[in-house]
Design brief:
alpha/beta; Rossmann fold; 2 domains; six-stranded mixed β-sheet; 7 helices; 27% helix; disordered N terminus
C-alpha cells in the first residue's frame, strides 16, 4: 500500500439511508416471490458496513438497488439526503468478477469509468495514475487482463470503482473467486484504501471472518424473504488480528446466527481398526 498519496477526506454528509425497502420478483409461473421485506438501515458517511447471510437472502439484490441498477421496489433509498434514482458517479460498484475488457490494458480499463466524468484529459490521466498506485499496480499500466493474476485483475476493478471519487463504494463479494492467500492479502489492502480515502463502503459477503475483519458493523440477514435479523458492532481497532480473543468472540457470535439449534452434536468416535488381519483369501482386488 502506498503511503505517499495525500489524504483527501470527504466532507460530512448524511450518509446512506435505506427506508422500509421491499422487493418482489414475478416468476414465470405468475406467482410473486418476495426477495426483500421492509429493510431499514442507515450507513454513516465514512463507515464500513458488511452484509452477510445465506444464499438467497437478497444481499446482492439490496446492493443493486443501492447502486440504482433496479428501480422496481417499494420504500426509499436516500444518499446524502437525496432519493436514489438510477446510477450515479457518487456510487461506485465492484463485482465478484473483475469484468475487465480483454482488449483494453490496465489504464484503459480504469479509464472506462471516466467516460462521463467532467475532468479534462490531463486530470483523467492523473486520476488513473493515482489509482493504479493506490491499488499497488505500478508498472502494470500497459498490461492486458490475460497477463494479470486474479488478484491483480480484481485490483484493477477496485481502482475502476474508485477513480470517479465516489462517496460510497459497493462491493458484491469482490474476493469470493480468489484463493485464500490472495483474498486475505486483498482484504488488508482494501482496509488500507478505506482508511486512506475515508470513503463509505458497503460489502456483501458470505465470509463472516472477512466481514468482521473489515467492518465497523456486520448486518446479518435471514432469507425467504430477506430481512435484517441483527446488526453486530465490531468495536476493534485496525489493523485487526484474526487470532485475537475479542475478534474470535465477535466472529463466533455472528457465525452462531447460521447454526441451527441442535445441529452441533458430538461426532461419533472413529471406528477402531481390528487387530486381526483379513485373510488373503478374502482380499478383493481392483483388477
Amino acid at each position: 500500500m502506498p503511503t505517499s498519496l495525500p489524504s483527501t477526506p470527504y466532507p460530512q454528509e448524511r450518509g446512506l439511508e435505506i427506508q422500509q425497502v421491499s422487493k418482489d420478483y414475478r416468476q414465470t409461473s405468475g406467482n410473486t416471490l418476495a426477495v426483500l421485506d421492509t429493510i431499514g438501515l442507515k450507513v454513516q458517511s465514512g463507515e464500513f458496513v458488511s452484509v452477510v447471510g445465506a444464499s438467497g437472502c437478497g444481499k446482492s439484490t439490496l446492493l443493486r438497488l443501492i447502486a440504482g441498477l433496479d428501480s422496481a421496489f417499494t420504500g426509499e433509498i436516500r444518499f446524502d439526503g437525496a432519493s436514489v434514482s438510477g446510477t450515479g458517479l457518487e456510487r461506485g460498484l465492484v463485482f465478484q468478477e473483475p469484468r475487465l475488457f480483454p482488449w483494453l490494458n490496465v489504464e484503459q480499463n480504469i479509464a472506462v469509468a471516466l467516460r462521463n466524468s467532467t475532468l479534462n484529459t490531463q486530470q483523467k490521466r492523473d486520476a488513473i495514475a493515482k489509482h493504479i498506485e493506490l491499488v499497488g499496480l505500478g508498472g502494470f499500466e500497459q498490461a492486458f487482463p490475460h497477463q494479470l493474476s486474479g488478484g491483480m485483475a480484481q485490483r484493477v476493478a477496485i481502482a475502476r470503482g474508485l477513480v470517479n471519487r465516489p462517496r460510497v463504494l459497493l462491493l458484491d463479494e469482490p474476493f469470493g473467486a480468489l484463493d485464500a492467500l490472495t483474498r486475505s492479502r486483498l482484504q488488508a489492502e482494501l482496509q488500507g484504501i478505506w482508511e486512506h480515502e475515508k470513503i463509505t463502503m458497503v460489502l456483501v459477503t458470505h465470509d463472516v471472518e472477512e466481514a468482521v475483519f473489515l467492518s465497523d458493523r456486520v448486518v446479518i440477514m435471514q432469507p425467504h424473504p430477506g430481512r435484517i435479523r441483527r446488526i453486530v458492532d465490531v468495536p476493534l481497532a485496525h489493523p485487526r488480528n484474526r487470532s485475537d480473543a475479542a475478534f474470535i468472540r465477535i466472529r463466533d457470535d455472528v457465525l452462531s446466527e447460521f447454526i441451527e439449534p441442535g445441529t452441533q452434536t458430538e461426532k461419533p468416535p472413529l471406528p477402531v481398526a481390528s487387530s486381526i488381519p483379513t485373510p488373503i483369501t478374502q482380499w478383493r482386488l481392483a483388477w
